[in-house]
Design brief:
622 residues; two-stranded antiparallel ribbon; 10 strands
Length: 622
């Protein structure tokens, strides 16, 4: 009994002695929690100064307090969880500043300890991500422990990659063989992003992995590491796909690999790869692949730009040719740029969908602006593919030009023999073509041309009403047909003399073109015509006055209207080619077919009796 009492008494005494200590500990915890909650309430901070003040207070927390702060990430109160993320993020950013090494290191140690107390995967992932800011080699061990955790491997890999030390990279490589799934892909990607050369052997061995996602990531990683030993593997992977794009991005990675070699100074291998890709990627759908390889080649060796451009000029794909010119432009003179762009435009015109009349107009526009003989010869050659009379007239103008006459002759013969033409004009230019053409070429088609001329019909064909030199065959216009009919011979003669003077003041011939001087009156042909078919090219010059208005009167009436379409105030938006003063039938054209102001247009006007048909740039408008 006495013993029992003493024991009970001892217990009571013990409790009496211990209770104040427990109570003190609990009070301290409550106080620290309250202090933490108060700090958290200041986040998110509304200013950097306010944030720094709160972070400075946090930086003085001991490890238990820091663990309690981190524990707030898993609290039931959603608001406090969010505030804890802001606070921890602010502390990490503050500790990563220059001159805060001691705080950075202690924070990393505290995070490592706190990480082991967390249960929620999301909270762990967030805290692991903070090592991107404060992690260094002392954190590699704790981060490496998560490289086999499918839920946490990604933030762990990112943090190790951000540490980017030899030890961190070695840790990633060491973990790769045992990793699987998305975790393994994350590790492989990081090794590539870090350009970690010691990983090449292991990655080369994974190029043919069964998992296409793994193959894709391995090729990605090897492309950025850019070790020469990987080249045969890249070529084989791309070759298996016929250089087509697929899920593994083998071709895209091959291009990146070559570009990285170029940046690393391995010009020889980069150039070989560029040539291989262009050679192997000939399918039309692979033009973008060839374009990327071409850019690399031009960047690699600008002095070979003329070679690459000449090769691109032979390519059927105009996108490839256009890209070659764009890539080469920084390495070319202004004259060379103009010449290559002319070549591109010529190809675009000939292979485009424009009507023949419009194609020829566009070629002539380039021809008139070019001073390069090669370009002009090329235009004459390409014009030979446009089988219309207008082409014959265009080429005929250069039969007396010593530098252009051979090609002009070839074009005339080619176009003429493709159709049934007649008349003195055709006979004359074909005979001239035989006389001035290249002797070697002439012999191959002389007999055929002579036979063509001999069998030509007696139809007079087209004749020139403007000789391109002067106003021969033209006169000033006297009034209108009704007023002229009322004049006697002497009155008409006097009026005509006055009109002729006015014509010479109003019209001139310049560079083979009949040009209106922006003032004065109309002119007319001296010869009268019955039914006819007329071809005429016209252009309204943009003089910035916005008053473009012209027309062609047919046997006095009607007038085929020529407009500056911008003059909507007078209804010009309907387009040119309408019969402006037609009273009984439609006067507006069927469609707008005008070229922009300042560019050439072509009319083909057919008049039979009182019926008129008008074609503008190859399209029927009336």
């Amino acid at each position: 009994m006495i013993f029992s009492k003493i024991r009970n008494c001892s217990l009571i005494l013990c409790l009496a002695i211990c209770y104040p200590s427990v109570q003190a500990q609990s009070s301290k915890t409550i106080l620290e929690n309250s202090k933490i909650d108060t700090l958290l309430s200041k986040f998110p901070a509304y200013s950097s100064q306010s944030s720094d003040t709160s972070v400075l207070a946090m930086s003085k927390f001991n490890q238990p307090a820091m663990i309690r702060l981190v524990g707030k990430l898993e609290g039931e109160d959603r608001k406090k969880r969010t505030q804890a993320e802001y606070a921890i993020g602010a502390l990490s950013a503050y500790a990563s500043r220059q001159g805060k090494e001691s705080l950075r290191k202690s924070t990393a140690v505290n995070y490592s300890k706190a990480l082991q107390t967390l249960n929620n995967q999301q909270s762990k992932a967030f805290l692991i991500s903070q090592f991107e800011y404060i992690g260094k080699d002392e954190s590699i061990a704790i981060l490496s422990s998560y490289l086999n955790d499918q839920n946490l491997v990604d933030p762990a890999v990112r943090s190790l990659a951000k540490i980017n030390s030899e030890s961190a990279k070695a840790a990633l490589l060491k973990a790769m063989p045992e990793a699987s799934g998305m975790g393994k892909l994350s590790i492989i990607k990081a090794l590539g992003d870090l350009k970690y050369k010691p990983a090449v052997a292991a990655l080369n061995g994974l190029v043919n992995a069964n998992d296409p996602n793994e193959r894709k990531m391995v090729l990605y990683a090897l492309s950025y590491i850019a070790d020469p030993s990987s080249e045969p593997l890249f070529f084989e992977a791309a070759k298996k796909l016929n250089f087509q794009y697929d899920h593994t991005n083998a071709v895209a990675s091959y291009l990146i690999y070559a570009d990285q070699l170029l940046k690393a100074g391995n010009y020889k291998l980069a150039g070989e790869i560029g040539r291989k890709i262009i050679s192997e990627s000939k399918s039309p759908e692979l033009v973008s692949t060839r374009i990327n390889a071409l850019k690399m080649l031009i960047d690699l060796n600008a002095k070979n730009t003329p070679i690459y451009l000449s090769e691109a000029d032979k390519e059927p794909d105009l996108e490839y040719f256009a890209s070659a010119i764009a890539f080469a432009t920084p390495h070319l003179s202004s004259n060379e740029i103009g010449e290559w762009n002319d070549k591109l435009q010529i190809k675009q015109i000939i292979t485009g969908n424009d009507l023949p009349e419009e194609q020829l107009l566009r070629l002539r526009e380039i021809f008139s602006k070019s001073t390069n003989t090669e370009t002009r010869i090329n235009i004459l050659k390409q014009a030979g593919e446009i089988k219309i009379f207008n082409t014959l007239a265009f080429a005929a103008a250069y039969l007396d030009d010593a530098t252009l006459q051979h090609q002009a002759a070839n074009t005339i013969v080619k176009v003429a023999l493709s159709g049934k033409y007649s008349g003195s004009f055709i006979k004359a230019i074909l005979s001239k073509a035989l006389a001035v053409g290249n002797p070697t070429a002439i012999d191959s088609y002389r007999s055929q041309v002579e036979k063509y001329i001999k069998e030509m019909s007696s139809d007079p064909g087209f004749v020139q009403i403007f000789n391109g030199k002067d106003l021969t065959g033209w006169k000033g216009l006297v009034a209108d047909p009704i007023k002229r009919a009322k004049m006697d011979a002497k009155t008409l003669e006097t009026a005509q003399a006055k009109a002729d003077v006015e014509m010479r003041n109003s019209w001139t011939v310049k560079d083979g073109e009949l040009v209106f001087m922006s003032h004065g009156d109309n002119l007319a042909t001296i010869k009268k015509y019955g039914d006819f078919e007329m071809l005429v090219d016209w252009k309204i010059i943009d003089d910035k006055k916005g008053e473009g208005d012209a027309g062609i009167y047919l046997r006095g009436t009607p007038q085929v209207q020529i407009w500056d379409n911008a003059r909507t105030n007078v209804g010009a938006q309907v387009g040119s080619g309408g019969l402006y003063n037609n009273q009984s039938n439609p006067s507006k054209p069927l469609k707008v077919a005008d070229n922009p102001l300042g560019q050439w247009n072509n009319f083909r006007i057919v008049m039979r009796g009182d019926r008129v048909t008008v074609f503008l740039n190859g399209e029927m408008v009336t």
